[in-house]
Amino acid sequence: MNAPAIEPVIRFPEHWRHHHLLDLESLSAADITTLLDTAQQLSDLYDRNGKLSLLAGKTMANLFFENSTRTRNSFSLAAKRLGADTIEFSSSGSSVSKGETFIDTAKTIEAMGVDAVVTRHGTPGTSHLLAQHLNCSVLNAGDGPHEHPTQGLLDILTIRQHRGSIAGLTVALVGDISHSRTARSNIWGLKKLGAHVIVCGPATLVSKKWEELGVEVAYSLDAILPRCDVLNLLRIQFERQATRPFPSVREYALLYAMNAERMRLSKQDILIMAPGPINRGVEITPEVADGPHSVILQQVSNGIAVRMAALWLLLGNGSSA
Ligand code: NCD
User: Fold this and answer.
1) Where are the domains positioned within the chain?
2) Ligand 1 within 6 A of 151 CB?
3) CB-side exposure of 180: number of CA atoms within 13 Å?
4) Would you state the pLDDT for residue 7?
5) Backbone dihedral angles phi then psi of residue 120, each to the nearest 5 degrees
6) If you measure from the C-alpha of residue 301 to the centroid of ligand 1, how many angstroms do you get, rounded to a whole number?
7) Residue 148 Cα: closest atom of ligand 1
8) Which class does domain 149-300 fall in?
9) Whole-angstrom Cα distance, residue 12 to residue 108?
10) Tens digit of pLDDT for each residue in 152-163?
């Protein structure tokens, strides 16, 4: 009797063609859906089987020029859960302080036999620049205020897990829109999947120009709250601001912080999200951050899942397990 054929438990998507993950703006709705589906499959596979070997023999390097807790650690964990090796680079204590350029530093890391460089930098376009100079895959982990594609993906995956699909939902991004890479990646991803997106904050942090991206611009959180299925509360990025965009943090919190009172104006099943780090009492109060509508820690877990998906799709070379 013939032994039964062993079916692959995950199949590499045939239509996937990308070598880099630089932004969500240039991805199609089908690409984004593939990333989300793959994230779900890989995290289920990991939960059932433990560490996988889909990327055994591959090496991922974290090349971070800005601070990070969630993104950096979850990229490393994602690589390890797929069986890859990791290199951790930080700008402090490196040859950058001896005058080496960003590109030379990246090429040096690549020359160590690295298959993927994950990069975060304060200047927009740096990951796109690296992609032009390196042969290995480049993943953007945040380029200044421009994009943060895996953050957009993990936010959208979290919404999809709760609501089944994205089309037809109203999602508000609240806070420091103009300095937020999370906002831009969410806008591109959510719009492509058919959501209605509202960007809401003080006029100094969100101008009417944003309407050109096909989003609604709002200045009153209280006015839009009853229509929102999801709120993504963005941190005020003081480190990217030349001048203070509102009179005081207290005034900002009075108008835009999600608190118990505003929860009563919201839909009964509203999802409360934040990319983190959260500033309790500024964009969100503790009772909301820790309350039953908050999915902030689920976002963190989903960060590992979408980063596993991104790494496997870029480095897996059509491998199935
Ligand atoms: C965000 C970032 O760094 O872009 N955080 C993250 O990656 N989870 C948002 C922020 O710093 O406020």
Assistant:
1) 29-147+301-315, 149-300
2) yes
3) 28
4) 46
5) -130, 130
6) 15
7) 4
8) alpha beta
9) 31
10) 999 999 999 999
Structure tokens at 125: 């376009």
Atom of ligand 1 nearest to the CA of 303: 8
In tens, the pLDDT along 263-288 reads 999 999 999 999 999 999 999 999 99
Per-residue tokens: 209: 């120009």
> Does the beta carbon of 182 sit less than 6 angstroms from any atom of ligand 1?
yes
Question: Is the minimum distance from the CB of 146 to ligand 1 under 6 angstroms?
Answer: no
What's the CA gap between 205 and 176, in Å, rounded?
A: 5
Do 29-147+301-315 and 149-300 agree at the fold level? Answer: yes
Name the residue of 182, 236, 296 to mutate for ligand 1: max ligand atoms within 8 A of Cβ: 182
Instruction: Output the CA 145–ligand 1 centroid distance in Å.
Output: 10
For domain 29-147+301-315, the CATH superfamily is Aspartate/ornithine carbamoyltransferase (3.40.50.1370)
Cis preceding-peptide flag for 277 (omega within 30 of 0): yes
